[in-house]
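Hey,

Quick one before I head out. I ran the complex with guanosine-5'-diphosphate overnight. Inputs first:
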Amino acid sequence: MSQQVSTPVSATATKEIVRESARRRTFAVISHPDAGKSTLTEALALHARVIGTAGATNGKENRRETVSDWMQMEKDRGISISSTALQFAYRDTVINLLDTPGHADFSEDTYRVLAAVDCAVMLVDAAKGLETQTMKLFEVCRARNLPIITVINKWDRPGLDPLALMDEITERTGLEPMPLTWAVGIAGDFRGVWDLQKDEYVHFERQNSGASLAKEEHFSPEDALAREGDVWTDSLDEAELVIDGREFDRNKFLDAKATPILFSSAALNFGVKQILDALVDLAPSASAREDKDGGLRPVEAPFSGFVFKVQAGMNKAHRDHVAFIRVCSGIFERGMVVTHSNTGKTFATKYAQHLFGREREVIDQAYPGDVVGLVNASALRVGDSLYVEEPVEYPPIPFFSPEHFRVARSQDPSRYKQFRRGIDQLEHEGIIQVLRSDRRGDQAPVLAAVGPMQFEVVEDRMTQDFNAPMRYEQLSYSLARLTTADAAEKLSNVHGAEVLVRTDGAFVAVFNDVWALRRVEKNHPDISLTVIGTES
Ligand code: GDP
């Protein structure tokens, strides 16, 4: 049958896009290293039954290897550097979990991931409370007004008093805690949770290993009292102190004014299903996205998306370059010809993949909220927009204020060309920011990083991928501000300060420390100095 009238077809497509967008939950877990992010990621996947047995995907024994290790450095250090996207179906939703490297030193990449999600899960170690990296990431979420679900993890181990944790959350984040579940049993004696929505006691039974789901039993409050006695009533009393008669208010969560609270032990799979249910029931679905000019691009508009991450060298055998796109509207179909908003050029998306750790799958279709990895789309940079038919440009992803600065030099002057190409490429991938000045010359660019590990990645990649061994000279700067061209002259003789030019043409003033900055502010009130993006 040839149905040539386009309207009914597009009406069907519209319906499909709206339905699929409403099913998407795209989020990231923000946490301090060691709070249990990798463990929780696997526990969530286990619950969604993507991974039959956590820690034993495809028969691999090393849990770390199953999730997100690409680079040798990651393996050596046992930390994850690259962000990836894990997709799984749960109940009637499709969950996209974007991995954020937790290491404090590699945070710029993490921050960018937060531009691509609709919600964040803030994972807190019950024994440690809100740690530095959690707070930094929280600040980025706050700047983006992202709704945050808070999970108090490791409740199976001795930890802080739950009310003290709630106070800390209120004081340090300004978010009102709204318990969805409350731990029954003090930290270290995790028996189960009170599910406040269903008003029932969910008792968890420990399995021999974290590789299988914990057994859950549900009890009415009366039965819970009979079973747990004072431990049950203590739990109710505590939660009621926090709730203080207020109703659970989803809008406050969506407006980033309050945060739902859940308790878990990711290692024992306690309370993990409740986290998934909270994501499905409460977290925002993929919806209309604001463009650069403040207009809204509805999900049913033709395909569009933006690049939130670019990475090369993930697969030595393939030497590839992958641009990760968050789909914002329409249906992405592999092979479709898209326009790159920066250049106005079109290209075919032949090699579209879904990537998570070592796993790669060819993607044929993706909907708003999904992440697509475009292989060998080497013109794409972080922040670039792509579209079909109706042009759109999404807001740029902010630069993060660098705090570490080093001069890079080629070890072998005869390989300067390779050196230059490598530095340009790594900057293009967003691995490092590059600052230059006439005074320092082209041979000695200043590399600026949010965390010092970025320097190691650059050094490693320069040797491995560009055959351009390099060395560093330490600089004592630790602070940067955006400034204007005239500042270069005015600060040329000031100790502990210097003006450099970023590749996008922005003038960046760098300072030894906050005192050097204050001195300049005092002595040169005419110089404009503004904070760069988000200060980590
Ligand atoms: P990440 O750095 O945030 O990804 O943290 P990991 O998931 O690697 O966890 C750090 C350590 O804490 C590991 O030894 C985990 O086994 C352990 N861990 C994670 N979650 C829990 C938990 O809920 N309870 C206990 N007792 N240990 C946990």
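The chain is about 30% helix and 30% strand.

Talk tomorrow,
K.
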